[in-house]
Amino acid sequence: MLEVACAACPLRQLPLFIAHSGEELHLVQSLKRREVHLQPGDTLIHEGQTDAPLYTLREGWAFRFKTLSDGRRQILSFLLAGDFIGVQQKMGDASAHGVITLTASKLCVFQRDSLWELHRQSPTMGFNITWLTAHEESLVDDNLLSVGRRSAEERMATLLILLFKRAAALQADHGASGVLFPLTQQHIADSLGLSLVHTNKTLRKLEHRGLHRIENGRLYLRDAKALARLADLYGDGHPQPRPLV
Predict the structure, then answer these.
(1) Which contiguous run of DSSP H or E holds residue 110?
(2) Residue 89: what pLDDT?
(3) Within 13 Å and on the Cβ side, how many CA atoms surround 170?
(4) 205-212, Cβ contacts within 8 angstroms, sequence gap of 24 or more
(5) What is the pLDDT of residue 51?
(6) Is the Cβ–Cβ distance between 78 and 61 less than 8 Å?
(7) Which residues 6+ apart lie within 8 Å of 5 measured at CB?
(8) How far apart are the C-alpha atoms of 80 and 96, rounded to whole Å?
(9) What is the mean pLDDT of the chain?
(10) What number of other Cβ atoms are within 10 A of residue 2's Cβ?
(11) Hey, which of 16, 20, 41, 93 has its CA 20 to 30 A from 195?
(12) How far apart are CA 115 and CA 121, in angstroms?
C-alpha cells in the first residue's frame, strides 16, 4: 500500500484547512507510523480499549458512540475527513467510547505518545490539538442540546444542516451536487434519541415540506434557510478554517 506523505495530503489543498509550516509538517510526519484502510462497519476503537493509537481520518465517515449494558447505543458525534481521533482516550486509562466506520475509510496512525511530543516540540501544534479537542466538544454540545431541548423536527433539521455544511466544506463544489450521506435511519435515531418510527416520520415530514432530499446515498438541501430557521441556527454556518494533524 502506497502511503501519502503529510506534505502531499490532498486535504491540505482544501480551503477548510489552515496551512502549516515545513517544520510542523516534518514533525507530524515523524510521528506518523502507518496508514490503515478500513471497510464500512469496521471497529476502529473498542469501548474500554487501553492501547488505541491516535488517528487522523483522511477519507471517509465514522462515528463515536457509547452503549448501555442492554445494548442501547448513543451516537456522540459523526467524524469526517480531517477529524483527529483518540484524544479523549489519552486523557484516561481506557477509551470511554467506541469508534466505528460508516464508509470505506483511510486513516493515518500516530504513535501513542504523539500528544506529548507535539506539545513539547511545537507549541503551535499543541494549541492545534487543543483547538480540535474543543471543536469536537462543541459538536457533542450541539447534539446534547438537540437531545435535551429540541423537538424531533428541530433535532432533524439541526443534524441535516450541520452535517451537510461539514461535508460540503470537503468538496470542490461546496455541496452544489449534494453531499455523501451514509447514515441509515438507525444511525440518525441513535444520534438524536428518537425511535426508528419517529425518525422515519420526521424525515418524511421535512422532505414533504421541501426542505431536503436524500437519494442514492446523497443529501441535498432544498431550502437551507428554512432548515436553519427550524433548527434555530443563525449565521452562515460554514465551518471555520481549522488545523489538520
Answers:
(1) strand 105-110
(2) 63
(3) 19
(4) 205/153, 206/153, 206/156, 206/157, 206/160, 206/230, 211/157, 211/160, 212/160
(5) 83
(6) yes
(7) 29
(8) 20
(9) 91
(10) 4
(11) 41
(12) 10
Q: What is the pLDDT of residues 129-166, one digit of tens each?
A: 888 888 888 888 888 888 888 999 999 999 999 999 99
Cα gap 159→46, rounded to integer Å: 25
Length of the chain: 245
Cell of 148: 435535551
Rounded CA-CA distance 61/100 in Å is 9
pLDDT number for residue 133: 86
Do the beta carbons of residue 68 and residue 87 sit within 8 Å?
no
Question: 10 burial class (0-12, 13-18, 19+ CB within 10 angstroms)?
Answer: exposed
Which residue bears the cell 474543543? 134
In the chain, % of residues over pLDDT 70: 96
User: By the 8 A CB rule, do 34 and 107 touch?
Assistant: no
Listed residue (245, 80, 73, 57) closest to 162, CA to CA: 80
More confident position, 199 or 238: 199
pLDDT attached to residue 141: 84
What is the distance in angstroms between the CA of the first residue and the CA of the last residue of the chain?
A: 21
Domains of the chain with bracketed CATH: 6-138 (2.60.120.10), 143-231 (1.10.10.10)
